[in-house]
Amino acid sequence: MLFEGLELVSALATLAACLVSVTLLLAVSQQLWQLRWAATRDKSCKLPIPKGSMGFPLIGETGHWLLQVFSKIFSHEALESYLPKIQLVIQDTLRAWSSQPEAINVYQEAQRLTFRMAVRVLLGFSIPEEDLAHLFEVYQQFVENVFSLPVDLPFSGYRRGIQARQILQKGLEKAIREKLQCTQGKDYSDALDILIESSKEHGKEMTMQELKDGTLELIFAAYATTASASTSLIMQLLKHPAVLEKLREELRAQGLLHSGGCPCEGTLRLDTLSGLRYLDCVIKEVMRLFTPISGGYRTVLQTFELDGFQIPKGWSVMYSIRDTHDTAPVFKDVNVFDPDRFSQARSEDKDGRFHYLPFGGGVRTCLGKHLAKLFLKVLAVELASTSRFELATRTFPRITLVPVLHPVDGLSVKFFGLDSNQNKILPETEAMLSATV
Ligand code: HEM
């Protein structure tokens, strides 16, 4: 009896300890989340702060006019106009990767690529390559210190983060001013143009400070998430050659895998991409098993009940994307990488609205999801049609989840170009060596 009593006390103590840790974890991570967004903006920024959600401060309330502007930025028409530029940025990057004699660190290079995409395509800045490289270094310093404690001491992470933000904002201001001068009277063709023009249409001309904060937040939202997903995509194509081959077959069938690599510089269209069903399945499966963001936060606006538990108004709650994907009953062999689960015949994601949510869910779902998927699809098409790539380490690296999902060593991969028969183009010295053997 005494023994049972002790067991009960110990079980209650464990439960209490668990509750305290969960509450603490929630409170700390919520603070970090808020800090993360607050760090992207200047104190004087007047952009709306979210109500009822700890989502993206740029947008704030769901019915806000900025949401309507964002729907334009990511509309079908806008995506069609970004597509050739995205393709060119990716083609340039893959050429550079293939010309490197050494293996590259995929995660690091994917970060550089998404930064480039955000600056060149989304913001339409035509800054010289060296300035872009410098801006990227500063940006990395900024991102590395976003989660630091807000203690403003010399050499502290916080001070370094603030300094990096100031340099970035200076660079952004210069680029925005140049852009405003060049684009006056022209049709708009990138997200920043749309942001500027549409806010005017809503009678809310944005100040320079708001534009700088807004652009920094846009880069921030696009950067780490898309780099994480791009790295996972490359890793899965390496791990599953049969999937890559099937992808190549699909491209070949659609006339997209020509001799001499892909001659289709800047010629992909949205409808061509949406016709590639297997490609869609591959991207979906990468996003299911390797979702870059673990979850999100919400403030409860109205008391509600979930599975018999009452969740009171005013509480902060967290939803987990990763756990949802791991436990959703709709997915068979949940840990297996199997793009065909999304094929028309199986459509595992079609049963139930909230089993598959790599881009979040509800009214605060990711605004850039179509752009992100488009980017990943173009990357996969270009990889399949113009590159061969090999893992440069003996085994695949472990995956870490913080701050976003990525391989611990960044994933070391050697890239080669492809000749007209889809064979590797070896660097000259290697080609000579193999010719003499
Ligand atoms: C693979 C890449 C991406 C993933 C996995 C991703 C994921 C997410 C998730 C899960 C959320 C919701 C967070 C929450 O519930 O509070 C979110 C929000 C958001 N994302 Fe993305 N995202 C990606 C790329 C992008 C890109 C490229 C952009 C645009 C440039 C973008 C812009 C946004 C914005 C503006 C929000 C806030 C929406 C709001 O609060 O109403 N994302 N993203």
Automatic annotation (TrEMBL):
Keywords: Endoplasmic reticulum, Heme, Iron, Lipid metabolism, Membrane, Metal-binding, Microsome, Monooxygenase, Oxidoreductase. It catalyses: all-trans-retinoate + reduced [NADPH--hemoprotein reductase] + O2 = all-trans-18-hydroxyretinoate + oxidized [NADPH--hemoprotein reductase] + H2O + H(+); all-trans-retinoate + reduced [NADPH--hemoprotein reductase] + O2 = all-trans-4-hydroxyretinoate + oxidized [NADPH--hemoprotein reductase] + H2O + H(+). It comes from the Eukaryota. Its cofactor is heme. Coiled coil: none annotated. One of its GO terms (biological process) is sterol metabolic process. InterPro entries: Cyt_P450, Cyt_P450_CS, Cyt_P450_E_grp-IV, Cyt_P450_sf. Heme binds at C366. It holds the Pfam family p450. It is found in: Endoplasmic reticulum membrane; Microsome membrane. GO terms for cellular component: endoplasmic reticulum membrane. Transmembrane segments: none annotated. It is a peripheral membrane protein. GO terms for molecular function: heme binding; iron ion binding; monooxygenase activity; oxidoreductase activity, acting on paired donors, with incorporation or reduction of molecular oxygen. Its main location: endoplasmic reticulum. Belongs to the cytochrome P450 family. This is Cytochrome P450 26B1. It comes from Nannospalax galili (Northern Israeli blind subterranean mole rat). The lineage of its organism: Eukaryota, Metazoa, Chordata, Craniata, Vertebrata.
